[in-house]
């Protein structure tokens, strides 16, 4: 294994990492860098490559191309053939099903990694109790995992992951087996725990709310590539592609074309914005849910038809189709339930409309609808 001097405070980095199964590429060139004490979420749908990337960092797979470094040490390099097994990477893992042994006590589960490393009994017991104390479970050392709630079992798994004081913790969708209410409660608790323990973590999830709550940076993955790597705030404010915006459910995507100094919804006579510039441009935009308010159909508002509605904790989220433009669906949050088939008028704040690419939209007029 080749070593090199750590660069600043980088905890883990990958350079041009690819993984192929035969002729099929699973990862297509991944470059990430995670600082010590930070959490990186790998976010994306099933099959996007996020779990594969986690396994590469863990040492459960070897890259076809590229290299992986942890704390300045090259732990995998396809070009040279260097490869450090998992036990040599000084990391902990929290699995989807927690992987707790039912025949062992909570203390026995937590101390097992130390036992495998040949740590003496007295030192092992002291470090086990210290790890349990850090997650608030020191009083449960003699219980069986089956006596604990799902959230408590998760904390046991975290205590086992941190007991050997690893430099990196890997989380493989640790909340996916919990019911919805417990999962929502545990997201905030887990985020607080990661911060209070000062952990450096990579967290795999398909749930965007988990990623945005827990992580300092989020890598949105699709088809073996990273579509965008940014902080949660930047992802929401400036999604790099329509695919990122759609996956994060930030709003509706539409194509606009410029004619007669107006931005029209493509293929229609419904205008959204005034534009003083070139005619013939076509741009793709995000119209965020937060930019839209619904009311009665009236002049100056865009006419739409409600397709469906579902309740959220902060109101009813309705999907509506614009009248005029084809295949333009937007999302609007309403205090009152909007029923399928109902007509509504939409007001849109043009300053919140996000344009993909380099085109700059001007906001001289909010909405101008032309029959």
From TrEMBL:
- Every copy of the ABC transporter domain together lies at 12-248
Classification via SMART domains: AAA
One GO term (biological process): quaternary ammonium group transport
Q: Entry's Gene3D superfamilies?
A: P-loop containing nucleotide triphosphate hydrolases
Q: Which keywords annotate this record?
A: ATP-binding, Cell membrane, Ion transport, Iron, Iron transport, Membrane, Nucleotide-binding, Transport
The record ties this protein, via Pfam families, to: ABC_tran, TOBE_2
User: Per its UniProt record, what CDD domains does this chain match?
Assistant: ABC_Carb_Solutes_like
Q: What's in the GO CC field? A: ATP-binding cassette (ABC) transporter complex
Domain of life from the UniProt record: Bacteria
**GO: which molecular function terms?**
ABC-type ferric iron transporter activity; ATP binding; ATP hydrolysis activity
Say which family it is in. Answer: Belongs to the ABC transporter superfamily.
Instruction: Enumerate the PANTHER family for this protein.
Output: SPERMIDINE/PUTRESCINE IMPORT ATP-BINDING PROTEIN POTA, SPERMIDINE_PUTRESCINE IMPORT ATP-BINDING PROTEIN POTA
- The identity of this protein, by name, is Iron(III) transport system ATP-binding protein
Which source organism does the UniProt entry give?
Neorhizobium alkalisoli
């Amino acid at each position: 294994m080749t070593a090199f001097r750590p660069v600043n405070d980088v905890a883990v980095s990958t350079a041009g990492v690819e993984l192929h199964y035969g002729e099929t590429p699973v990862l297509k060139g991944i470059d990430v860098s995670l600082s010590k004490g930070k959490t990186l979420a790998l976010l994306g749908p099933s099959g996007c490559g996020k779990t594969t990337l986690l396994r590469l960092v863990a040492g459960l797979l070897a890259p076809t191309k590229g290299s992986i470094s942890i704390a300045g040490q090259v732990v995998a390099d396809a070009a040279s053939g260097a490869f450090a097994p998992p036990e040599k990477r000084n990391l902990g893992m929290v699995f989807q099903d927690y992987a707790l042994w039912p025949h062992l006590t909570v203390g026995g589960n937590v101390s097992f990694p130390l036992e495998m490393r040949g740590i003496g009994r007295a030192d092992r017991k002291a470090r086990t109790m210290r790890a349990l104390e850090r997650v608030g479970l020191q009083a449960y050392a003699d219980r069986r995992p089956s006596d604990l709630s799902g959230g408590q079992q998760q904390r046991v798994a975290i205590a086992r992951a941190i007991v050997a004081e690893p430099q990196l913790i890997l989380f493989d969708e640790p909340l996916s087996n919990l019911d919805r209410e417990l999962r929502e409660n545990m997201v905030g608790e887990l985020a607080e725990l990661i911060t209070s323990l000062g952990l450096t973590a990579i967290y795999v999830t398909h749930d965007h709310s988990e990623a945005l709550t827990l992580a300092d940076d989020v890598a949105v993955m699709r088809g073996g590539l990273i579509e965008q790597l940014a902080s949660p705030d930047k992802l929401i404010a400036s999604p790099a592609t329509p695919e990122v915006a759609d996956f994060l459910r930030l709003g509706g995507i539409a194509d606009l074309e410029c004619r007669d100094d107006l931005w029209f919804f493509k293929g229609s006579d419904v205008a959204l914005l005034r534009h003083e510039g070139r005619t013939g441009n076509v741009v793709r935009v995000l119209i965020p849910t937060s930019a839209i308010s619904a009311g009665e159909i009236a002049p100056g508002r865009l006419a739409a038809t409600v397709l469906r509605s579902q309740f959220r904790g902060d109101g009813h989220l309705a999907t509506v189709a614009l009248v005029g433009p084809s295949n333009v669906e937007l999302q609007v949050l309403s205090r009152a339930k909007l029923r399928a088939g109902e007509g509504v008028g939409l007001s849109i704040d043009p300053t919140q409309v996000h344009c993909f690419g380099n085109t700059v939209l001007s906001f001289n007029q909010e909405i101008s609808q032309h029959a």
